[in-house]
Hints:
With 188 residues, the chain is of the alpha/beta class. The chain is 35% helix and 26% strand.
Amino acid sequence: MKIILASSNKHKFEEMSKILKPYRIELERADVQVNESDFETLEESAEDKARKAFQMLKKPLIVEDTGVYFDAFKNFPGIYPKRMYLSLGFKGLLKLLEGEKRSAYFKTCVSYYDGFRMKTFSGKLQGKMAEHVHDADKDVLPYEKIFMPKGHKATLSAISREEKNTFSHRGIATRKFAEWASKRLIKH
């Protein structure tokens, strides 16, 4: 089975492709940009993006939306991690956490939409924010350079993609989608 991932993010595409391969699901990337609306929850944001991407592509697809949540602040950076990183950078984000609880989590939602049916799957990864940036020059998503998953002594940036995919927020949500799709979308 082939499914479109509506995303301009190559990192998400690469990780999700590897996660879906054992389920015999081949991912194709459609490099589409959709305007982000303001929502309270990650689920609402992902579902809105799926509807907007479907309007452009007119094909069944999935979108992936990830939020980062610092326990010291309510819903921050929340569903806007990229916007907050681009505004504050590592320096600003880490400054906000000085003297605060450093526990945090990633949450990912994968939303499938075919024009009629919407199905959303989520995954969560607990951990804490590091006190400084690790692997500054590594080509990974920015928050991976400052987030240490629970039970690990290194940031996500130092963990191989293969290992990360076994326990990450994205891995959990993507496998939930794959299991659902295997039962309902793939012809056996």
